[in-house]
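Quick check before the chapter quiz. The format below is the same one you will see on the exam, so make sure you can read both the input and the output lines.
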Amino acid sequence: MAKNKLQRYADLRLFTNVFEGAGVHRGAWSRDYFKNDGPLVLELACGKGEYANDLARRSPENNYIGVDIKGARIWKGAKCAIDSEIKNIAFLRQYIQFLPQSFSRGEIAEIWLTFPDPFLKQSDNNKRLTSPFFLNIYQKFLRPGGIVRLKTDSDLLFTYTIESAARCGCAIRRRIDDVYAAPAEDPILMIQTYFEKKHLDAGRKIHYLEMSLPETEIKVFKFRCSLETRDAAEKTI
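Here is the expected output.
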């Protein structure tokens, strides 16, 4: 392991805005850590925390937590927050499937998924962060009426999420097929990470979807979305 990576892992243990593992502040993040009663918003697979930090700057009335398992990535986001004196953000190093151990039922107001791995192989579709498997997990801590927001350059993931939402009984509250095709409706959708800028430079469209989860429990199952079916058919021709 590179020396600077070892140093960053050591730094994480000293950063007061970084937490690891389960149980810390569960059910009381806003009260015990942020010291207010603001809504709690997660960015899952946050990477270097660029989006979460910018959201926190723009919306000081909310509390934000960036979640990722990669310590070196979280270091960048946490260091940026410390250097920029962003007080309404923290970072949690944990696998997403274990998040019910860190957040109680109804504790989270919103979830952001910004450019998550689309897992292009159909055999891996249950790993997609908008699969029924993960939507079921989000139900365990997202408040009733809470929002799941997806921003992606992947046509496959966008189509898959629309179909996953329909199959799971989610309500799609907002759909934008090309975020930058029209004048900005919402400034928070104009936030651009390093990778988003690369996607735009490559001529890719940026999609956005906003949905709320049903009150009834989402059953876990696998399915192949229409885009995957069409692609699979084209490969046989």
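If your answer matched, good. The mean pLDDT is 92.
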